[in-house]
Hints:
- Helix 2 crosses helix 4 and helix 4 runs antiparallel to helix 5.
- The chain has helices at residues 2-29, 36-54, 66-76, 109-125, 138-155; strands at 82-83, 105-106.
- It is mainly α.
Amino acid sequence: MSINKGKEIAEGSSRSRAVAAAAAVVDQQNPPPLSRYESQKRRDWNTFGQYLRNQRPPVALSQCNANYVLDFLRYLDQFGKTKVHLQGCVFFGQPEPPGPCTCPLRQAWGSLDALIGRLRAAYEENGGLPETNPFASGAIRIYLREVRDSQAKARGIPYKKKKKKRIPLKSNEDSSSFPIQQS
C-alpha cells in the first residue's frame, strides 16, 4: 500500500505539472483583454490600413507618406461632429451661437491629435522605423496646428496651451531645519 501511495504522489505531481502546463497554453491563447487605449489604437490602425487598401491603386504601407496621412485626416472630416463656422457665417467667432447654420461638421482638433498619437505608436509597434514614421512628419504637425487655430478662431476662443501643474512640496513643521520662532 505504501508503494502505491508513493506512486500516486509521484503521479499526482506530474499531473499537477501537466495541468499547469495546459493552463499556461490556454493563457497564451487567451491573452488578457486589451485596455481601452490599446483597442482604440488597433481599431485606428486597421481603419488606416483599410483606407490605404481602398486607394486606387492600393497603397502599400511601405509606400505611405505624410500626404496619404493628410488625405486620411481630411477624409475623416466627413464623419465629424464638431460644427466649425466658416469665415462668412454670421456666427463665426461666437463660442455659443444662438441658432443653427449650414456650416460643415468636422473632426475636432483634439480627436485628430489623439488619433495621430495612436497611429504614430501603432506604426512603430508594427515594425515601422521611427525615422520613416509618416505620422511623425512635420507636415502633420503643421496641419494639426492649422486645424487647432482655425477651430479656435471659428469658436472665438483662443487656444491656450495647458501648463503643467506643479506639485507644491509639503513641508512638515517637525522636519524643518529652520523652525519658526514664536515670540
